[in-house]
């Protein structure tokens, strides 16, 4: 059974996912379907609209995850977190939701706006959320930051002086 900490982290992860998904879905529908007679640069280009909108959602998700969801975890090298995060997001975004969108459009012949949103933005994103939570915990935000990594332990005694080693004869 998962610990309380993992459950709380998963809850924060889902909240971040909800916010970034809302941003991505709103942008997707504006780009692909031009609601309310507003000008849309990618009108009727559902795949490109999906890629652009979820790229923006990915940036929102990264910042919220880094600052809130996984704030007690850190990568071991500078820059490691973002690169891993981007790779995992791109892979899961292109393989899972786009596969669902492609399958509903081309294999099932479902072409309405509702069908596109259900396949890509509901089924696909739910499946990719599960995959991303596991992969982010495992590869991006993989370990908690320990107190001694940030601050020296004041109770620790130094047995040897710091500096050049002394040669003994």
TrEMBL record:
Segments passing through the bilayer: 12-33, 45-62, 82-105, 117-136
InterPro entries: GtrA_CellWall_Glycosyl, GtrA_DPMS_TM
Localization: Membrane
Top-rank lineage group of the source organism: Bacteria
Pfam family for this entry, one: GtrA_DPMS_TM
Main location: membrane
Membrane topology: Multi-pass membrane protein
Matches recorded under PANTHER family: PROPHAGE BACTOPRENOL-LINKED GLUCOSE TRANSLOCASE HOMOLOG (PTHR38459:SF1)
Family affiliation: Belongs to the GtrA family.
Protein name: GtrA/DPMS transmembrane domain-containing protein
């Amino acid at each position: 059974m998962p610990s309380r900490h993992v459950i709380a982290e998963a809850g924060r992860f889902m909240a971040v996912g909800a916010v970034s998904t809302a941003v991505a879905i709103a942008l997707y529908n504006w780009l692909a379907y031009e609601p309310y007679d507003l000008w849309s640069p990618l009108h009727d280009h559902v795949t490109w609209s999906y890629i652009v909108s979820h790229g923006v959602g990915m940036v929102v998700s990264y910042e919220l995850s880094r600052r809130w969801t996984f704030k007690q975890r850190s990568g071991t090298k500078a820059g490691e977190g973002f690169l891993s995060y981007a790779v995992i997001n791109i892979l899961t975004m292109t393989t899972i939701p786009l596969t669902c969108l492609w399958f509903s459009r081309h294999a099932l012949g479902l072409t309405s706006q509702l069908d596109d949103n259900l396949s890509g933005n509901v089924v696909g994103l739910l499946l990719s959320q599960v995959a991303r939570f596991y992969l982010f915990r495992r590869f991006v935000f993989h370990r908690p930051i320990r107190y001694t990594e940030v601050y020296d332990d004041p109770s620790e005694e130094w047995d040897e002086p710091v500096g050049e080693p002394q040669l003994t004869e």
